[in-house]
Amino acid sequence: MNRRQLLAALAASTLVGRTAEAQTFPTRPIRIIVPFPPGQASDVISRLLGERISASIGQPIVVENRTGAGGNIGTEAGARAPADGYTLTIATAALPISKLTYKKLSFDPVADFAPVTLMTITPLMLVTSPKLEVASVAELVAHAKKNPGKVTFASSGVGTSHQLSGELFATLAGLQLVHVPYRGSSPAHIDLMAGTVDIMFDNIVAVGPQVRQGNLKALAVTTKTRAPSFPDLPTMQEAGFPSFEAVAWFGVLAPKDTPAPVVERLNAEFVKALSVDAVRTKLNDLGAQVVASRPDEFGKFLASEVNKWKPIVERAQISLD
Nearest-CA neighbor of 178 among 155, 151, 157? Predict the structure, then answer.
């Protein structure tokens, strides 16, 4: 047997072995890496679905919180894991943004993964300080144009989806807004309620309760359709910005080169768990809308997110290295 024949035989035997393993998958516990602290939405959703999937596959689902560097520490660990389906990583809107804003990462936040499913999307909400005398997006735009460089928008940090949503709004509306970054949403909300800053785009789960209590004013949501939890609130598209869409989202990734049959099995299990009425009710209560996409659909979504935010990152000159 010559070298070429030997390599072909080795490749064939490896393929057969991986196919056989995929057919019996899973035979041991599956680890889900959440790159954010316990208690956040990504963690809550992972544990909620993990319980259902564990019961279905007859194997434990272990949720591991590996935090730091805006989610990059846990995400890198997921990218470097063996491509066998036994280590999954929760992805959020931070993933494509990291690809654009971190130039010196030792891994590619998108290319080093195989998409499994986009689980849910969650609207962001445009909220204002109760002290800002505007009652609609149109009034906010008019106010900002009369006061260029004086209207401030808060975010939970540089390079977050909150900042990029504000930058997108400024670009589409032709406004000069001043970005005020915070270390997390909570301190931003305090200053927003006090009138220290003027507006903010934030997850509807985070700001919805403050709106209901009258501590903040809501002007619009950022999804294509209205949020079921705030049916009277217009979308940004209805408010005059037809190309505006920005969502918080949660997806599942496996390391690249994970066998396709394993990805398909994982996708089927997550989609099944997301179809359970009790799960959907819980997610709806959190403000999340179930998507449960196919792997290829999630891959296209990731590519579209990178393309959408790239010009905004470049315009704002955001770099986190």
Answer: 151
Residue 117 in tokens: 């499913």
On whether residue 152 sits in a domain, the answer given is yes
Please answer whether residues 7 and 38 qualify as being in contact, where contact means their C-beta atoms are separated by less than 8 angstroms.
no
d(CA 256, CA 258): 5
d(C-alpha 143, C-alpha 177), whole Å: 11
50 touches 270 (CB < 8 A): no
What pTM does this model have? Answer: 0.83
> For residue 149, is it within any domain?
yes
- Beta-carbon contacts of 296 under 8 Å, excluding residues fewer than 6 positions away, are 115
Q: What is the DSSP track for 93-124?
A: THHHHHHHH-SS-SS-TTTTEEEEEEEEEEEE
Report pLDDT digits (tens) over 167-194: 999 999 999 999 999 988 889 999 999 9
Residue ranges making up the domain that contains 157: 126-211
How would residue 1 be classed by pLDDT, with cut points 50, 70 and 90? low
155 and 186 in a single domain? The answer is yes
- Whole-angstrom distance, CA of residue 231 vs CA of residue 227: 6
What integer best gives the mean pLDDT of the chain? Answer: 91
Structural domains of the chain, count: 2
For residues 91 and 133, state if they share a domain. no
Residues 274-308 as b or e (16 or more Cβ within 10 Å = b): beeeebbeebeebbbbbbbbebeebbebbeebbee
Average pLDDT over residues 275-303: 93
